[in-house]
Fold these 2 entries.
Entry 1:
Amino acid sequence: MRIKLLGASAGGGFPQWNCACPNCSGARDERKSGGSRRRFQERTQSQLAVSADDRAWFLLNASPDLRFQIESFSELHPKSQAGGTRHTPIAAVVLTNADLDHVLGLLLMRESQPIHIYATASVRKILTEDNTMYRMLDQKHGQVKWTDILPGQSFELVSVQGERSGLHCLPLSIDSKYPIYVSPQALPRLDPQEAVLGLVIREGEGSRQKQFAHLPGIRELDENWRKRISECDLVFCDGTFWEDDELKKASGAARTSREMGHIPMSGPAGSIEVLSRLKRPRKVFTHINNTNPVLDETGEEHAAVLKAGIEVGKDGMEFKL
Ligand SMILES: [Zn+2]
């Protein structure tokens, strides 16, 4: 299978529109100078795409930068068909939660194009019952096909036309935290187990089996996840923050990294400590917030991540398993 990292930033992107932190200002300064990038690579908001056959592509979440990300990757461009000019190689979308940086891209895919969306019933309810704009995905009868997924139950990824992919997805419950925009009236109808998922995508069986994990938001890499990741060939891990109180320092935010559902990279039980001990998988940080010092490629934090055997994800990286 082929996996494309289309966006490696957390919500807000890098640089973020209202941020003048050393990273965001540094990235803008390098852009203005017009020379080659020595310290900062700009990044769009978190997005992955995966394909088993180079023909049907499955999106893991739907980023607000999706339109730009599709244009940046020719495999996702429409091909003109005998029946007309409207087409997309995007076969379906799998949602890990209802965070805006994971679902806003769905609204960019509303041009009467049939679309298949996998999500937990709770996430589907938030989008379709609590947010009327998502009815734009269902202007024509049968335009959107929602498939409810259950934590712990593996399923094969199938296109909106019903074509099987040979890719199997195991969603696992990670967190019970719903986005703060969800109305209090909606909360009682939502299952805490369905709030935030990690995904394990698998192709093949036995000795030919390949699999990777996608964990854009995880509070703790506990024993279960350590074991699960150690069986994978590749892991995309939550790289939102370097330290637990990073956003407090940067913007006076009230909550710590862990309180926001993101394991920090540094410190005891941080993601660097845990991931560096896992031998088998290739390890890539994604969902990197603009305040994270690892974005400075000349800094000691960036060097520490590389030294631990982990890569700092960048837009456009491609992986073959
Ligand atoms: Zn910033």
Note: Helices lie at 22-33, 66-71, 100-103, 121-129, 223-230, 246-251, 271-276, 300-307.
Entry 2:
Amino acid sequence: MERARVSRRALLYGGAGIAAGATTLAMVRLFGPRARGAAGSALAPPARGAPFCGSAASAAPAAVSPPRAPLHPDALTPFVDALPIPRVLAPAGRRPHPTIAGREISHYRVEMREATIRVHRDVPPTRMWTYEGAMPGPTIEARSGEPISIEWVNALPERHLLPIDHTLHGAGADLADARAVVHVHGARVPPESDGYPEQWIAPGGSIVAQYPNEQDAAMLWYHDHAMGLERLNQYAGLLGSFIVRDAAEDALDLPRGDREIPLVLCDRLFFADGQLHYPVSEDPRAPWVEDVFGDAPLVNGKLRPYVEVQPGAYRLRVVNASNARIYALEMSDGRTIHQIGTDQGLLASPVACDRVTLAPAERADIVVDFSDAAGSALVLRSGAIPLLQFRVARAAAAPRRALPRRLRTIAPLSPEGAVTTRTLTLDAYHDPAHDRMLMLLGGKYWHDPVTERPVLGTIEIWQFVNRTEDTHPIHLHLVRFQILDRQVFDVDEYNTSGKMIPIGDRVRPEPGEAGWKDTVRVEPGMITRIIARFDGYVGRYVWHCHLLEHAANEMMRPFDVVAPA
Ligand SMILES: [Cu+2]
């Protein structure tokens, strides 16, 4: 069985082995020919860990073989189930506007509950944890400038569906199993509505969150963020789309209605009986594993579904909701994908590409034109992994409409305008207490005092120095940012002497990343610089790696936005 541990790089673009060539090419393009050094071998380790010196594969706990037979997704007939389109959630009622007297806003109610989901015609129903009985949950549609409120209700069973690791911070055995708190990823919200990981609610409880939607049109998504459990709660199914629209985007006449399709990607492992398999370490007291890759790619909760389309252009709103997998999306016939948007909305202009890379939590707004493909079947795939089949009707193509050349104006944030540059390392250690990998941000644990305290309204540069051997998608709550550049540095020299010696040029972000982002791929052996204005609200938020297993084991830190003096 191929559940053995494989390095992230081998799995990066779609399965060990098959896509290794593509991975290598992408890495060489990003990093240059120089290999990355060992991580963290010189700096003094923080009090609870020792520097990590071995290879990730040898030091990590090996996943044990499950006693139950695994499901083999590749043995199932693909493309037999229609792609589900999540329903758009209807408001539960009206509530007074939070700031404007006499006005009202839409109020929603979303229940978290266990449900059975059919992922494939030939797989028995799967128990999942869902929003409103669906995985993905219902799509929440909002308008820019129109606030909404949502009551999130925890109606989950008392016992968790998946194995909790009580040795993780904030996941003690004395706490309720089914803790949950919802974060709308990419939403600019007051801190008390942001889904702070320690603000979870237990079964029977609920919380009302306010979403001002004072932000541009973008595809956001909502998911669980409970301390130490988000990896399990999301894997169990607690995720959904949250789409913000605005007048500027409406005016562009992009494909809409049934020509606009949300695609929520996540991979899972299943047992043959259809139940979710979340891998565990060899130590039953500390079952955490450092990352989880599934062999079953789900699109909107279905395993290799199909969707019927007309010969014409379709707008696909893609979110990578996987725990760890990075996708390299391409069409089976190599046709051009036009990327029109990224995490925080539209790009300045469409970008024609062969492949779109998406790390966990990143989004891509893409247009694929099937005008010339009447009667054919095309597949969206990631490397060699088929994800979704498009069955193009044998109909006459509608007159082809060109995409707008300009989508919107994106004013670059100038580095000269930054009040500070923060250097934040990404480090891997060996945690001797549990004989496992430990990854930290800036050498700090979750509970260490807050070190990042940007002043409201100011611009800062954060440069992430990645000394590990992994790509880590780093997400900041509250703010949108721009990627300035990436640059290879001498990891060995840095580890030995503490001297930062960059190598080669600073590389500008890829065209598809050159818009407003909220998650950035921080590549190994590189310095990745982002620039953000800390607008919005004063208060406590978090930034973290969006590989969920990392975030649950200390690769997450609080930050405070503080009022100007
Ligand atoms: Cu990470």
Note: The longest helix spans residues 20-31.
